[in-house]
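Before relying on records like the one below, remember that each one covers exactly one chain. Contacts with other chains, cofactors or solvent are not represented anywhere in the record.
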Amino acid sequence: MKRFHVHLHVDNLAQSIAFYSRLFAAKPTRVETDYAKWMLDDPRVNFAISTRGTQAGIDHLGFQVDDAGELADLKARATSADMALLDEGETTCCYARSEKHWVTDPQGVAWEHFHTLDNIPVFREAPAAPSASACCAPRGKPVAIPVRGTGPSSSCC
């Protein structure tokens, strides 16, 4: 089953946590000094906020899946639609280890498709090999263009 994913950049994390906790009638499932995440079931959404962006607003959208088969289906769908696809494979970002790939819509909105494998204690771990890619909306790639801003994102989901 898929879970819709939204990642926003915020200016004031504490203020935003208070607001979204009231809006969702739920406390975040994870809170760090620069990040918070709600895993809601109604609606089924992975909603994340962070202070790591350069401009407040939507960083990227996506779908989180429960298994590798669903991720492969999303990848095949994106490929068949002739979407430019950036396959990061297994990577670490946003306090999680995930398998992921990215596509960009015609307006430049970055869409992340990912399967979370495990939690990690830090926002981003160093890549295991020099060929490993960046975290979340990758830098310098066509699919890294966020909804807001003019350049590639240095953020993470």
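The chain has one domain: 3-144.
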